[in-house]
Amino acid sequence: MSYPHPGTAHCQALFAKGVKMKVMAINGSPRKNGNTATLLDRALEGAASKGAATERVDLYDLDFKGCASCFACKRIGGKSYGKCARRDGLKPVLDKISAADTLIFGSPIYFGGISGEMHSFLERLVFPYLAYDEKHTMSFPKKIRTGWIYTMNVPAKWLRLAGYKQLFKQYQSLMARAFGASETLVVTDTWQFDDYSKYVSSMFDPEKKARRRREVFPRDCEKAFAMGARVATPPAGRS
Hints:
Blueprint: H1 8-16, E1 22-27, H2 35-48, E2 53-58, H3 91-97, E3 102-110, E4 113-114, H4 116-126, E5 145-151, H5 158-161, H6 164-178, E6 182-187, H7 206-215, H8 217-231
Parallel strand pairs: 1-2, 1-3, 3-5, 5-6
Antiparallel strand pairs: 3-4
Helix pairs in contact: 2-8
């Protein structure tokens, strides 16, 4: 079934005015040049190929914590209603996001979930926009596109066995509800060490890992590029 993209009018208005789309990538990995960061960079390249202005934020560079449960974002008549009141290293990023047109989130999978830094970031990003009213209204000022990129060292079969598919569906649904249409790219069986012989890693076959890095990861990067190009392009009426 086709449906009007919730961000169509906003995106097309920007293009009509000749204003560049602003695409932000949020890196939830501690590695600045690892699998997640590489895929996010490729996604930003895809967005740039469509004329978007791009920026990557590395969460592990920032000094911040998760939600403090102060509820200033819910206080009637409060100056911080609908936005996070904490002033720390994350505040400039949240301010930029309020003006962004596309968000791409990237996280490795640690112990069956997204990284701790990414989870803390999401608490601060999404919770202030969620109103405690009967309709659970989301107050982000516009509809934008979002994308998720996940990396994990285990094979694709674990997506079903470990319940990852449901986890990823939940995060995609959260983004769709808070911001607008969302999509997901999952990259499995990733390369972790420069030299597997230096680590206790007998559950892996280094040769197979190296071959997958050479043959499959480049295709994953192409998928990330395509995602970036898609989310930086306003659809023509329907998607």
